[in-house]
Specification:
Blueprint: E1 8-13, H1 14-28, E2 33-37, H2 39-43, H3 47-57, E3 61-64, H4 67-75, E4 82-84, H5 93-98, E5 102-105, H6 108-121, E6 125-132, E7 140-141, H7 147-158, E8 163-169, H8 180-204, E9 210-214, H9 216-221, E10 229-230, E11 252-257, E12 260-264, E13 269-270, E14 276-277, E15 282-287, E16 304-307, E17 310-315, E18 323-326, E19 338-342, H10 348-355, H11 359-365, E20 372-376, E21 379-384
Parallel strand pairs: 1-20, 2-3, 2-10, 3-4, 4-5, 5-6, 6-7, 6-8, 8-9, 9-10
Antiparallel strand pairs: 1-11, 11-19, 12-15, 13-14, 15-18, 16-17, 17-18, 20-21
Length: 389
Amino acid sequence: MKSTLRRTWAEIDLDAIRHNYEVLRRRIGEDVKFLGVVKADAYGHGAVHVARTLQELGADYLGVSSLDEAMELRANGIVMPILILGHTPADQVPNLITNNITQAVTCLAKAHEYNEAAARFGARVRVHIKVDTGMSRLGVLCAGRHFDTGVNGIVDSCNMPNLEVEGIFTHFAVADETDADDVDFTKRQLELFKAAVSAVEQRLGRRIAIRHCANTGAVALYPETYMDMVRPGLLLYGCGEFASELGLRPAMTLKAMINTIKIYDEGTDISYGRMFRTVSPTRIGVIPYGYADGFFRCLSNRCSIMTAAGPAPQRGRICMDMSMIDLSGLPEVGVGDEVEIFGPHNPVETLAQLAGTIPYELVCAVSKRVPRVYFKNGIEIDRELLLRF
């Protein structure tokens, strides 16, 4: 539904998505396919609008985490290929086939399950086989003593009559890290993946069409990993440590409106826990943005919110629905003024560093009660609120 309130809202710049796609497309070259990762509601940016933008731009694939995420895109007119990177129960194979959705296969047992389910349905299901080269999460084990067994399992999967094996992929654990040990680990992951793919293809006597391993960190730092397709995630949204050096633009700006201002006497305790006490008369503004909206409580008394006149330190403990900011040195800022929680003037990377986390977590944490307002060509084109009425 559409929101009519100006409380707290996230402005999503689809022109920034376009810009970032075009920058990354030039970086990888026209011969490499582009999978845009839109899982977790496009990292909080709105999967449907981001997917529509990528479809218009000619991206090759979309990546999601679950069948539900894929079905949301199909229900909203997205017809381009979609790869589910996570688990799907075998009883949902008919839905994968009917809706032309590609599924990751993460072990031989699941290959058997999907093959049998597709056979019962009387059709083939398109899959990409995942190789675990060091992430130690999902994928066929191929490291060390597991190499021959892993390769055999992948070959067996490729020969199953009701699996259409279109791709093979792996995921890097530390491609975004630059110390020597992590660089060495990433390179060893790449070499193991290439060795496994080579052994599989040699046994099959044919090439697997789409070989891919480059996530956000690898797209930024390791061009040798691009292979047949790349999978940028946070880069697409203009966030993270590599975004500025690549000339990318943040697509989300999180804003709120100051709804109350009071001047408190010296010695006044502010908010829960009395963790901030004024040392002089202090002008405190209240913004309707709290931890239920995605403002991490651990940032209490540690960050600033950007006003039109400059940064305003956050004061006191962050509440569920509200937080307080110090406007003592900003007399021109008043009730009804907009503030930027994060965006181009208050980078999300700064907040993430203060919170001891990564930008992914902050943008994904923007809750469903925060309306997303979409802009294209500088004009608002849609406004949605993910609440049930």
